[in-house]
Design brief:
The complex is a heterodimer. In chain A, 39% of the residues lie in helices and 19% in strands. Chain A is built from twelve helices and 14 strands. Chain A starts with 9 loop residues before the first helix and ends with a helix. Chain A has two domains: 160 residues, 3-Layer(aba) Sandwich (Rossmann fold), CATH 3.40.50; 166 residues, Thiamin diphosphate (ThDP)-binding fold, Pyr/PP domains (Rossmann fold), CATH 3.40.50. Chain B is an alpha/beta fold. Chain B has one domain: Thiamin diphosphate (ThDP)-binding fold, Pyr/PP domains (Rossmann fold). Chain B contains ten helices and seven strands. Chain B has a five-stranded parallel β-sheet, sandwiched between helices. In chain B, strands 4-5 form a two-stranded antiparallel ribbon. In chain B, helix 1 crosses helix 3 and helix 1 packs antiparallel against helix 10. Chain B starts with 5 loop residues before the first helix and ends with a helix. In chain B, 53% of the residues are buried. Classes of the chains: A alpha/beta, B alpha/beta. Chains A and B meet through helix 4 and helix 5 of A and helix 5 and helix 6 of B.
Chain lengths: 341, 285
Amino acid sequence: MHSGTNVLDGAAAAMHLADYRAADIKQVPTRNGFGEGLIEAGNRNRDVIGICADLSESTRFEGFKKAHPSQYVEIGVAEQLLVAMAGGLASVGKIPWIASYAMFNPGRSWEQVRTIMALNETNVKIAGAHAGVSVGPDGATHQAIEDIAIMRVIPHMTVVVPCDSEQTKKATIALSERWGPTYLRFGREKSAVFTTGKTPFEVGVAQTLRKGGDVAIVACGILVYNALIAADQLAREDGIECRVVNNHTIKPMDQPAIVDAARACGAVVTVEEHQKHAGMGSRVAEILAQTFPVPIEFIGVEDRFGQSGDPVELIEYYGMGVGAIKDAARRAHKRKNASKD
Amino acid sequence: MQTLTPARRKELELKANDVRQGIIRSLVAAGSGHSAGPLDMSDVFAALYGYLMRHDPERPEWPDRDRLLLSCGHIAPVRYSAMANFGYFPVEELLTLRKFGSRLQGHPERVSLPSVETTSGPLGEGLAQGVGMALGAKMDDKDFRVWVVTSDAEHQCGLHWEAVMTAAKFKLDNLTCIIDRNFIQIDGSTEDIMPLEPLGEKYRAFNWEVFECDGNDVADFVAAAQRAQEVTGKPQVIVANTVPGKGVSYMEGDYTWHGKPPNAQQAEEALRELSAQRERILADA
């Protein structure tokens, strides 16, 4: 059995990951990746524009504003307008990125998103910043943990939740060049950067970051890092080898990768910083229920709201820490073995 | 400024009459839909498609065409009838309104019928999209105009006023908003449900140029629209005062006709009245 002592072996090496077990791993907010990616997207195509609803610093629009002032528009605190106006700009050939906190856009603007972006099929890109409970001290009003649900349910929508700042940068560039209504979700706090410039990224293609045949941990967003750490510890402590899948594209989801992980491992844990209801894990369950049913455990928020606190403290309190992932993997493993008896 | 010649005026009045007859025929075939608003905006749509707008039914995707957005999507029958009567599709297609598989959806959908420019129906959203288009035109030095037709009651939506503020900020003089000021909404009079007056003053306070006209008089509307097009540095609004149900006597001024179609007998009566009006227009010197 693979001991997991050298993380650069196997899948991690193939994915050109940084040494994610290093104590001094680089910590950068995912939103920084959005800011950098948007500048590059604006360099590549002058039709890429940014529309800001009074959160230029928080959403990391500032660099784009400096680099591309003629491609940048400020409209104040008006999230419904943000979507509707972007729809108009897209219909005359622009590629608008609209950024606010995920709680307000798409939180406040959902009907405009459905009608003007999706039903009307316009090439508008939403950047949902400050998603998840890891926003921290701002509290529940600002902690979007329902956004994946309300976006993945809309036809034609692409939904991407990258795992670190490097991947957020790549996703921003890739999504700018890919036609269609899109939701890109990222967070506020610093988080480990474990992908590198060489790590591939393709919308709709899930990534196996760690090999293992006992349990598949299917994760998205910054919690992919927790999943990797949990997998290493489970190998050491319990001899359970987990496959870790970075399921960054929630829609269209990489169905073959999900089914393959379920077949290979026979048990699945899904991990997301979102309500368990109707999120990424629910989509995984929908796929597997119809194709290859296996025991599934869900890591996420259990049908409640967040609160103020330190981001790490909140991740732990709401059951999304490394320990909770390990427990869920153990349960899944046990259920798998029980069903064999 | 070119004024409407008597001949062009008569031509537009006849077109408006054709549009009204198309509305009645499509509504009775559909068996559901809105009557009062489409009828009262027939003169405005005839003037837009027949005189004011830069457009070409043979080239609906022409990049430099004026954009006409119908924000209050529920009055789609007037737009469909105008489009049919100005050559965008056969008039017979109006009879497919609201039917399965039709391009003429109950509320307009751009994906099935691109010339409607936007998918609309949820109220208060058209002007905001028009602001985006007008700003896009400015960014690319394009000289097309964006016309947005709105209902009066959708001025109760917050999003509309977000767009009003934004149009002024960006000095979108290539944007003209038209208000169907018929004073009715589903539940009654706009001034009882949620008062809008003084409506023009509100726009003035938001730094718009305001025009008012008789929305059921093509010449008066054309004159207001021409003055609006001469404004620089500011978006313009035309408050088009209309009589709900205009052209069909038993509907005129009655808010209960906001959201229902005529039955077969009522449609026959309406078409008889409209045909008589057509004869009178033709007879006018």
